[in-house]
């Protein structure tokens, strides 16, 4: 089993089941993905060994165990712990040769669209591992940290409009744009939302259509913590919008803002009852799993993890930062799965109603930095990607993989 030294985290500066809507394959509600770690440093780690398509990698018992050392106030540790409906099994390689695969969204034919953060390329990937580049997104820049081509989302009406949505870093900040995918190539780039401040780190970056048909996006505080509490800013927020990029009806502040007080929110997903869950990178103490409700304040920078400040909403679960750095979350078969970057593990958190049960870790330190996890439509399985080739890993370009995990 590999071990790696602790990484330095940045300090403050200046003070979702993916519910695939109409037109996609029927499935249980699903997941969301996210930006970089929000933490800086480059530890030494050996790149994962390559495997052929379809090869299973049996997990030793130590891979498949390890309850979290949950820290913080007792009010987040006593929730019900539903019996396991299923657990993740061994990993099977779907595809290798990737360089920082960041975003993943499903097409109606069961194949996926994937983005590469630093090459700005978009690919299709079939269930049998066939990979094909379909284009590059224009106007993308990197930041030397966590910016670039981030998330991707297929329109819930793709069969009629052929729209694909992307979130990326541009010269003037982070933005959400729309393109057309005709089945063979991307075209017709159009900016829908801009004015989201960027920084080297804390760019957020996940977009996903909710079961209500609206597009949700996570935005980081751009290393300016006070923006998270400024309801007129688009940073440090979860946004909710129509497919044309305008504020969705019912938003709490008559703007794009749906919730606020976030540091570097990453994955979003909806459970079987349509509740929105979010994974968030903390600073030096705690990473979080939050149940998101409209208009709520999730505390940053006043709170990191649970706190007693009036008007601020506590996380449902929290982790010491070395165990997590959550990048994406997905809902499947009664549980939320959370991919961990610094923690190099996949967390399973059972959920029942508004409560989150005891987390359990899988694959700890075996596959490196885990970036994106998504439910596979119509199956009891997940796709999971690594980003060991990013600036916080030590893998070479082309060293990342897409895995499949069957739940049993």
What does it look like?
The protein is mainly β and 408 residues long. It is built from one helix and 26 strands. It starts with 55 loop residues before the first strand and ends with a strand. The longest helix has 4 residues, at 158-161.
Q: What fraction, in percent, of the residue positions are helical?
A: under 10%
Overall average pLDDT: 85
Strand order of the largest sheet: 1-2-26-25-24
Report the order of strands and helices.
EEEEEEEHEEEEEEEEEEEEEEEEEEE
Spans where pLDDT lies below 50 across 5 or more residues:
1-80
Radius of gyration: 19 Å
The main β sheet shows up as: 5 strands, antiparallel
The class by helix and strand makeup works out as mainly beta
Distance between the termini: 24 Å
Number of helices: 1
List the helices and strands and how they pair.
Elements: E1 56-57, E2 88-98, E3 101-106, E4 112-116, E5 121-125, E6 131-136, E7 149-154, H1 158-161, E8 163-170, E9 173-181, E10 186-196, E11 207-209, E12 215-219, E13 237-241, E14 257-260, E15 264-270, E16 276-281, E17 286-292, E18 317-320, E19 326-332, E20 335-340, E21 346-352, E22 355-356, E23 360-362, E24 370-375, E25 381-386, E26 400-407
Antiparallel strand pairs: 1-2, 2-26, 3-4, 4-5, 5-6, 7-8, 8-9, 9-10, 11-12, 12-13, 13-14, 15-16, 16-17, 17-18, 19-20, 20-21, 21-22, 21-23, 24-25, 25-26
């Amino acid at each position: 089993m590999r071990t790696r030294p602790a990484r330095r985290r940045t300090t403050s500066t200046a003070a979702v089941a993916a519910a695939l809507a109409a037109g996609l394959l029927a499935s249980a509600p699903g997941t969301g993905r996210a930006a970089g770690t929000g933490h800086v440093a480059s530890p030494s780690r050996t790149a994962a060994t390559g495997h052929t398509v379809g090869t299973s990698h049996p997990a030793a018992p130590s891979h498949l165990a390890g309850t979290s050392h949950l820290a913080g106030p007792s009010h987040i540790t006593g929730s019900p712990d539903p019996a396991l409906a299923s657990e993740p099994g061994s990993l099977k390689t779907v595809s290798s040769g990737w360089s920082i695969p960041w975003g993943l969204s499903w097409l109606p034919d069961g194949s996926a669209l994937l983005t590469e953060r630093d090459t700005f390329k978009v690919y299709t990937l079939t269930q049998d591992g066939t990979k094909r580049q379909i284009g590059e997104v224009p106007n993308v820049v990197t930041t030397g940290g966590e910016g670039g081509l981030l998330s991707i989302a297929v329109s819930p009406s793709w069969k009629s409009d052929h729209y694909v949505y992307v979130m990326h870093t541009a010269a003037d900040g982070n933005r959400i744009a729309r393109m057309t995918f005709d089945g063979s190539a991307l075209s017709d780039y159009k900016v829908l939302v801009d004015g989201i401040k960027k920084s080297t780190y804390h760019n957020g970056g996940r977009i996903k259509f909710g079961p209500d048909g609206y597009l949700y996006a996570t935005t980081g505080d751009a290393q300016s913590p006070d923006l998270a509490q400024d309801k007129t800013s688009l940073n440090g927020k979860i946004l909710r919008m129509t497919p044309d990029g305008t504020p969705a009806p019912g938003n709490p502040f008559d703007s794009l803002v749906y919730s606020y007080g976030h540091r570097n929110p990453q994955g979003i997903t909806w459970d079987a009852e349509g509740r929105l869950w979010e994974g968030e990178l903390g600073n030096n103490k705690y990473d979080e799993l939050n149940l998101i409700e409209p208009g709520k304040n999730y505390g940053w920078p006043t709170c990191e993890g649970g706190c007693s400040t009036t008007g601020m909403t506590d996380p449902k679960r929290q982790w010491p930062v070395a165990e997590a750095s959550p990048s994406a979350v997905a809902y499947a078969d009664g549980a939320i799965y959370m991919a961990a970057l610094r923690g190099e593990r996949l967390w399973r958190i059972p959920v029942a109603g508004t409560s989150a049960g005891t987390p359990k870790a899988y694959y700890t330190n075996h596959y490196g930095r885990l970036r994106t996890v998504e439910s596979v439509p119509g199956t009891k399985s997940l796709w999971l990607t690594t980003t060991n080739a990013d600036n916080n890993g030590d893998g070479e370009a082309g060293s990342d993989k897409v895995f499949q995990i069957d739940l049993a």
